[in-house]
Amino acid sequence: MEPPSMKLKPFELERMQSENEHHVEFNLSESGVEPLKIRELLDTPELKEQLLEMQLGYFQTNGTVPLREAISHYYPGSTADHIVATNGGAELSFRFFSRKNWNHIGLNIASIRIIRRPLQ
After folding, report:
1. pLDDT tens across 59-79, in order?
2. pTM
Protein backbone atom coordinates (compact mmCIF):
# COMPACT_ATOMS: atom_id res chain seq x y z
CA MET A 1 0.00 0.00 0.00
CA GLU A 2 1.41 3.38 -1.01
CA PRO A 3 1.55 6.04 1.69
CA PRO A 4 -0.96 8.81 1.16
CA SER A 5 0.48 11.90 -0.45
CA MET A 6 0.07 14.94 1.68
CA LYS A 7 0.90 18.60 1.62
CA LEU A 8 2.03 19.85 4.99
CA LYS A 9 1.10 23.37 6.02
CA PRO A 10 3.95 25.36 7.55
CA PHE A 11 3.81 25.35 11.34
CA GLU A 12 3.83 29.09 11.98
CA LEU A 13 4.99 28.94 15.61
CA GLU A 14 7.94 26.73 14.70
CA ARG A 15 8.86 28.99 11.77
CA MET A 16 8.81 32.08 13.97
CA GLN A 17 10.89 30.39 16.67
CA SER A 18 13.49 28.94 14.31
CA GLU A 19 13.93 32.28 12.53
CA ASN A 20 14.19 34.43 15.67
CA GLU A 21 15.19 32.38 18.73
CA HIS A 22 18.92 33.00 18.39
CA HIS A 23 18.59 36.77 17.93
CA VAL A 24 16.74 37.84 21.07
CA GLU A 25 17.89 38.80 24.56
CA PHE A 26 14.89 37.15 26.26
CA ASN A 27 13.26 34.19 24.53
CA LEU A 28 9.72 34.07 25.94
CA SER A 29 8.53 31.51 23.38
CA GLU A 30 11.03 28.80 24.36
CA SER A 31 9.26 25.51 25.02
CA GLY A 32 12.29 23.58 26.27
CA VAL A 33 15.21 24.23 28.55
CA GLU A 34 18.69 25.56 27.94
CA PRO A 35 21.23 22.76 27.52
CA LEU A 36 23.70 22.09 30.31
CA LYS A 37 27.45 22.33 30.04
CA ILE A 38 29.35 19.02 30.22
CA ARG A 39 30.92 20.28 33.47
CA GLU A 40 27.45 20.59 35.02
CA LEU A 41 26.64 16.98 34.14
CA LEU A 42 29.90 15.57 35.48
CA ASP A 43 29.73 16.76 39.05
CA THR A 44 31.44 13.68 40.53
CA PRO A 45 34.82 12.07 39.74
CA GLU A 46 33.02 8.78 38.97
CA LEU A 47 30.85 10.37 36.26
CA LYS A 48 33.85 12.14 34.76
CA GLU A 49 35.78 8.86 34.62
CA GLN A 50 32.82 7.07 32.98
CA LEU A 51 32.68 9.71 30.26
CA LEU A 52 36.42 9.60 29.65
CA GLU A 53 36.27 5.80 29.26
CA MET A 54 33.27 5.85 26.91
CA GLN A 55 34.03 4.62 23.41
CA LEU A 56 32.48 6.71 20.65
CA GLY A 57 30.87 5.06 17.66
CA TYR A 58 27.76 4.68 15.57
CA PHE A 59 24.68 2.93 16.90
CA GLN A 60 21.84 1.18 15.14
CA THR A 61 19.60 3.79 13.54
CA ASN A 62 16.48 2.09 14.93
CA GLY A 63 17.90 1.99 18.48
CA THR A 64 20.07 -0.64 20.15
CA VAL A 65 18.51 -3.99 20.97
CA PRO A 66 18.83 -3.47 24.77
CA LEU A 67 17.11 -0.08 24.47
CA ARG A 68 14.28 -1.45 22.30
CA GLU A 69 13.86 -4.44 24.63
CA ALA A 70 13.60 -2.11 27.63
CA ILE A 71 10.99 0.03 25.84
CA SER A 72 8.99 -3.04 24.75
CA HIS A 73 8.39 -3.97 28.41
CA TYR A 74 6.05 -0.97 28.67
CA TYR A 75 3.84 -2.36 25.87
CA PRO A 76 2.37 -5.80 26.64
CA GLY A 77 2.68 -8.17 23.69
CA SER A 78 5.44 -6.21 21.97
CA THR A 79 9.07 -7.16 21.43
CA ALA A 80 12.19 -5.24 20.45
CA ASP A 81 11.25 -5.94 16.81
CA HIS A 82 8.11 -3.81 17.24
CA ILE A 83 10.05 -0.79 18.52
CA VAL A 84 11.92 1.92 16.62
CA ALA A 85 13.82 4.48 18.68
CA THR A 86 14.89 7.66 16.94
CA ASN A 87 17.37 10.39 17.68
CA GLY A 88 15.19 13.48 17.82
CA GLY A 89 12.04 14.68 16.16
CA ALA A 90 13.36 15.15 12.61
CA GLU A 91 14.25 11.48 12.26
CA LEU A 92 10.92 10.49 13.80
CA SER A 93 9.04 12.70 11.34
CA PHE A 94 10.96 11.25 8.39
CA ARG A 95 10.24 7.67 9.47
CA PHE A 96 6.59 8.44 10.16
CA PHE A 97 5.85 10.14 6.83
CA SER A 98 7.85 7.66 4.72
CA ARG A 99 6.00 4.59 6.02
CA LYS A 100 4.69 2.06 3.52
CA ASN A 101 2.49 0.17 5.99
CA TRP A 102 -0.13 2.44 7.54
CA ASN A 103 -2.17 -0.34 9.20
CA HIS A 104 -0.94 0.26 12.74
CA ILE A 105 1.25 2.96 14.21
CA GLY A 106 2.08 3.63 17.84
CA LEU A 107 4.05 6.70 18.82
CA ASN A 108 5.55 7.51 22.17
CA ILE A 109 7.35 10.83 22.27
CA ALA A 110 9.17 11.85 25.44
CA SER A 111 7.05 9.34 27.39
CA ILE A 112 3.81 10.99 26.28
CA ARG A 113 1.55 8.67 24.30
CA ILE A 114 0.38 10.37 21.13
CA ILE A 115 -1.23 7.53 19.14
CA ARG A 116 -1.75 3.96 20.33
CA ARG A 117 -4.42 2.61 18.00
CA PRO A 118 -4.81 1.56 14.36
CA LEU A 119 -5.04 4.50 12.00
CA GLN A 120 -8.29 4.68 10.05
Report:
1. 777 888 998 899 889 888 889
2. 0.45
